[in-house]
Amino acid sequence: MLSTNDLRVSYGMSEVIHGVSLNVGENETLTIMGRNGMGKTTLFKSLIGVLPSQGRITLGDEDLSSTQPYQRVQKGIAYVPQGRLVFPTLTVEENIATGLEATGAKKIPTDIYDLFPVLHDMRHRKAGNLSGGQQQQLAIGRALAADPKVLLLDEPTEGIQPSIIKQLAKNLNEIKQMRKISIVVSEQVLSFAMAVADRVMVIEKGAIVHEEDGKTANQEEIARYLAV
Ligand SMILES: Nc1ncnc2c1ncn2[C@@H]1O[C@H](COP(=O)(O)OP(=O)(O)OP(=O)(O)O)[C@@H](O)[C@H]1O
Predict the structure, then answer these.
(1) Which CDD domains match (predicted)?
(2) pTM summary value
(3) Residue 40: CB within 6 Å of ligand 1?
């Protein structure tokens, strides 16, 4: 579905993603694990196109390498950034509606509110008044409004309490089931990653250093990569 080949990303003269090649299959969840500063956010920003990169990025048969972020969204990539970045002064409903611009649809798909009933209950409230977990749900709901083929989530559990993290894992599995989409999620929380991953990759210093099947993954080995 979404693939990269020899992806390289630099800040000025300094290359921080060193030739990453990956592929997420149809209806697959790929979890990319790595400690702070290993390159997860940089990788995601290059996938959605807000950072320039070298190498190839393809979605299905289409080469996206030289396309703009809005074109990638139109073609089916949605991005939930680290820190969520909802629009605090817009209502919940208005936030979700911004995702509709990609498709030109006028109505919020009902499955978003089925998935996150609290967003329906709070649809007229300002997003800035929601808790961190609710804002994360809103950011995911907004991304789903763009009807993506691939959903990218950058460290969705950051700053979220453990009980809500469990719920979030359940939500991601429901989304994959409901929408039959591909999901790429970066994470540092091992339990969350194991609850959602079909496949796990570990990123260290901008390179993929380990990969295995999510269902049979050796958690101790992955935990060693995450230990400081
Ligand atoms: N705007 C920038 N300019 C220069 N270097 C940067 C910039 N943003 C990130 N870096 C560097 O790029 C490397 C990868 O950072 P990145 O934020 O992608 O890592 P990360 O795995 O997402 O970490 P975190 O979990 O802390 O967000 C780090 O060495 C970081 O210092």
Answers:
(1) ABC_TM1139_LivF_branched
(2) 0.95
(3) yes
Residue 97: band (very low, low, confident or very high) from pLDDT cuts 50, 70, 90: very high
Model pLDDT for residues 180-218, shown as the tens digit of each residue: 999 999 999 999 999 999 999 999 999 999 999 999 999
Distance 38 CA to ligand 1 centre (A): 7
Domains of the chain: 2-83+147-226 (3.40.50.300)
Å from CA of 111 to ligand 1 middle: 35
Token match 């789903």: residue?
144
- Residues contacting residue 1 through CB under 8 Å, at least 6 positions apart: 23, 24, 25, 26, 28, 59, 60, 149, 150, 182
Instruction: Report whether residue 39 contacts ligand 1, using a CB cutoff of 6 Å.
Output: yes
Ligand 1 contact via 10 beta carbon (within 6 Å): no
Q: Is 9 left (phi over 0), alpha (psi -120 to 50) or beta?
A: beta
134-157 tens-digit pLDDT = 999 999 999 999 999 999 999 999
Any ligand 1 atom below 6 A from CB of 36: yes
State ipTM: 0.94
Average pLDDT over residues 37-54: 97
Top mutation candidate among 16, 17, 35 for ligand 1, by most atoms within 8 Å of CB: 16
Give the pair of three-digit tokens for residue 4: 């990269």
The minimum-distance atom of ligand 1 relative to the CA of 43 is 18
Summarize pLDDT for 151-162 with one digit per residue, the tens. Answer: 999 999 998 989
